[in-house]
Structures are given as C-alpha cells and as structure tokens.
C-alpha cells in the first residue's frame, strides 16, 4: 500500500510494484499496463520539435516562407542545442505544387523553395524537416492532369472517387488497384529527402466520416479499409525509420488499431488559442466515444498513460503555446506533464511571440529524462480522481522521479513516503525546477501552487 497526501487528507492507494501505477478502468477489466501481444516494439522516444501551428491558427493561412525561415533561425540559435532539432510544417498550405507522381512538393505555391530544398538546408544546420501530410489524400488537380501512379500505368484518378461526399479531401480508395503503391510511394518520396517524422491528420474522417462538431464529413467505410490504410502507412514508415504520428484518431476499442500501427497518437482536441482552460479545464473529466475521447490534454494524457511506457506508445498532447498561459506555475506544469509522460514536446511559440518564456523549454534536468527514455505513470489513470495528479517513474539508474501536479484553483498539499516506492527509507532529494538539492529525506511533502507542479528526483544513498 502507498500513502499519498492529497489536499489535507491521507489517501491510501494500492499500487502495482512492477508497473509503478494504480489503475482505474471501470469500462475494461483487461490488464492495462502492457500493450497487446501484437503491438510492435516502438524504437522512438517523444520528439522535441517546433511546429508552424501558432502562425497558421492565428492567421488561418499558410505560413510565408520568410516567416518560416525566421523561426528556423530562432530555433537554431535558442533551442537546437537543447535537443529541439526538428521543425515541422502543418496545414493551411495549398496543394497546387505536385510532382510527376502527384506527390505534394511544397507547403505553398507562394514559396520559392520546395520541401527537398528545405530538408537539405536543415540537414546542413544539424536539424531536420518534419512532414505534415496524409498519404491518403489525392490532389485532384494532379488526378485531373492525367498523372499515373509511380511504377504503374494506373491513372491517379482511378483511386479517387469523384462522387464521394467527403468534406475538404479526396480520399484514396484502398480497395482500388494501385492504391498501395500510391500510399507507400508518397512516404518513400519524403523519406528520400531524409524526413524522419510524418504527422498524418484527419484519420477519424477517413475511418467513418464522422466528426463530433461537424457531423457527417464523409462515408462510413468498412473497418478493414481503415486498418489496411494504417498498415500500409506503418509498413512504409518502418521501412524508412520514420516516426509515425497518428492525428485525430477515434481510438475505438481502446485504440486497438492505433496501438498496432502507430508510434504516436493525439489524445485531445486541438490546442487552438491555448491557455489553462484548453489545457486542463475544457470538459474536464468527461470521457466520450470517438475523436477526441477527452477534450483536454491533462485528461487525455492521464487516461491513455496505460498504453504508454518505454518502447511503447508515445502520447501527443498537441502543440504548446506557452506564451498564452497566465503565469510561470502554469507554464512549468504544462511542459512537465509532457516530459513526465514521455510524450512529445511540440513548441509552437514563435520568435516574435515567445517573450521571456524560453526557459520553460530549456530545463536540462527535465530534458535528461527524455534522454533516459523515462516514462512516468499517474497513480490512477482515472482523471476524475485527485490521485491522478501524482505521477512517478524510475530512471534506468534506479533513481525515482515524482511529479506533484495541481489542477485546482487553490494551493494543494501533496506528499510521498519513499519506502513505498519501493526503495530504502532515506534518499537524496532534488527539485528539478528549482535546480536545488533538498537534502536527505525519508518522505517528501509540499504545497503546490494553483495550476502548478513540483518535480523531484529521489536518489538512493
């Protein structure tokens, strides 16, 4: 048994020593601490990178190439040495730029340089390009131009259903000849540029044509078509060592297919305007069916923590707009959850919006957790329970890391007894945000500020 102090009471929480977390799963009695036996090994860790998202969402348009370059220069100067070596394009571009195989070559027709040029430029800087694109999208103007699928004599137009009533996209029909060659060829096209990250969006729309806010956005396909598409994409990514990020998945049947075919999954709604409300309070504690199962990142990360772990699924809490949070406590809490959960840390603040907040992303002691492959777990994955706000996990050298979060609007007491980790009674304690050694202790307690966090590292004597 573990005694955990929450609020002003001591709550006794059962834990599984082998996994380091208690579980709360009223809907499903299957063991949640290990992935299904058919889940492949995941060779990746949570990526550190910058995304264009903040510019795109504010402007509701593509990012101009000069703005793209200014942000790359800023990243190179301020964050590259901390491990943030990838920059990733996002949506809002136009599809007019395509090659002889119908593959998209550039973010916008207004850009001077294409993706291949930027991939080479970034490589020369010791950085890399991340790709936002869905290989299940067909560029209609390319199909109308009579383009043939690479390596075949099959018209691109033949794998697209002109009459399909789908919002925004022309989707690949996976039951058509040439579809597999097109999808895998698309990924190979980017792999040949040296791209090692692919962010595939709007998967729920392809799966069953339903959106929580928009209603019907396409046809309801057989589940086998969705699985086939994921399998093709995963096979091509694995062949080329590409981290596959699945975005907007319904995660039906406890993410059964996404666990099998993805390396990373989105687990909450879009960041949009940022702020603590979007991060923690938006429909707090409400579990739903389909995309997205939980609205906010804290709920989503907490619940889906049971499928994460070393060499397991990476959780993606979407883009971070640290400049939108009210104070230092909120900013520390946001970044800490990404690191403690082993998830992606995706900077979307820009050179002209970051203000004096770079320090939040530059905590070397948290960054060291990622280098170790650390993935912590909450004491329960039920986000409605207060003990879900305490996360813990063990580093490869035997040290423990414990994070005490506070989602509430008032100060909260948090604490832990070291003998219950389990470890010897006394240990050295270090605060990873204050960067201070706190001394030798046998237990730890603290008062966490509203929306704040305290992260400690516990090292055996």
From TrEMBL:
SUPFAM superfamilies: (Trans)glycosidases, Glycosyl hydrolase domain. PANTHER family: ALPHA-GALACTOSIDASE MEL1, ALPHA-GALACTOSIDASE/ALPHA-N-ACETYLGALACTOSAMINIDASE. The lineage of its organism: Bacteria, Pseudomonadati, Bacteroidota, Sphingobacteriia, Sphingobacteriales. GO terms for molecular function: hydrolase activity, hydrolyzing O-glycosyl compounds. GO terms for biological process: carbohydrate metabolic process. Residues 386-458 form the Alpha galactosidase C-terminal domain. This is Alpha-glucosidase. PROSITE patterns: ALPHA_GALACTOSIDASE, PROKAR_LIPOPROTEIN. Belongs to the glycosyl hydrolase 27 family. It comes from the Bacteria. It comes from Sphingobacterium wenxiniae. Residues 1-24 form the signal peptide. Keywords: Glycosidase, Hydrolase, Signal.
């Amino acid at each position: 048994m573990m005694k955990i102090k929450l609020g002003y009471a001591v709550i006794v929480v059962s834990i599984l020593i082998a996994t380091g977390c208690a579980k709360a799963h009223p809907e499903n009695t299957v063991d949640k601490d290990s992935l299904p036996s058919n889940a492949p090994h995941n060779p990746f860790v949570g990526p550190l990178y910058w995304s264009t998202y903040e510019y795109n969402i504010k402007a509701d348009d593509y990012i101009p190439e000069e703005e793209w370059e200014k942000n790359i220069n800023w990243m190179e100067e301020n964050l590259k040495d901390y491990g943030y070596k990838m920059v990733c394009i996002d949506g809002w571009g136009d599809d007019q730029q395509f090659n002889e195989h119908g593959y998209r070559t550039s973010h916008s027709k207004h850009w001077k340089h294409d993706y291949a040029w930027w991939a080479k430029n970034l490589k020369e800087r010791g950085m890399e390009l991340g790709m936002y694109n869905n290989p299940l999208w067909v560029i209609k103007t390319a199909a109308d131009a009579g383009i043939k699928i690479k390596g075949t004599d099959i018209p691109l137009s033949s794998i697209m259903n002109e009459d399909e009533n789908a919002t925004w996209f022309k989707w690949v029909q996976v039951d058509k000849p040439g579809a597999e060659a097109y999808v895998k060829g698309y990924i190979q096209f980017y792999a040949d540029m040296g791209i090692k990250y692919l962010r595939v969006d709007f998967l729920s729309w392809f799966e069953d044509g339903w959106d929580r806010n928009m209603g019907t956005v396409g046809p309801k396909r057989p589940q086998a078509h969705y699985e086939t598409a994921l399998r093709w994409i995963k096979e091509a990514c694995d062949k080329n060592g590409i981290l596959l990020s699945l975005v907007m998945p319904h995660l039906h049947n406890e993410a059964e297919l996404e666990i099998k075919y993805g390396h990373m999954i989105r687990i909450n709604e879009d960041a949009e305007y940022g702020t603590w409300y979007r991060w923690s309070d938006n429909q707090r504690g409400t579990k739903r069916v389909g995309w997205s199962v939980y609205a906010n990142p804290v709920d989503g990360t907490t619940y889906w923590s049971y499928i994460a772990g070393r060499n397991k699924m990476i959780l993606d809490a979407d883009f971070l707009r640290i400049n939108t949070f009210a104070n230092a406590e909120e900013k520390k809490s946001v970044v800490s959850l990404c690191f403690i959960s082993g998830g992606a840390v995706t900077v979307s603040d820009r050179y002209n919006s970051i203000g004096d907040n770079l320090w939040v992303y530059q905590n070397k002691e948290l960054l060291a957790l990622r280098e170790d492959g650390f993935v912590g777990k909450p004491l329960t994955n039920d986000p409605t329970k207060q003990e879900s706000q305490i996360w813990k996990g063990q580093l490869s050298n035997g040290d423990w890391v414990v994070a005490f979060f506070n989602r509430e609007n008032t100060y909260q007491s948090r604490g832990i007894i070291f003998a219950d980790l389990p470890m010897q009674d006394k240990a050295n304690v270090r605060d990873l945000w204050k960067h201070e050694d706190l001394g030798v202790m046998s237990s730890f307690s603290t008062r966490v500020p509203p929306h704040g966090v305290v992260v400690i590292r516990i090292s055996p004597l």
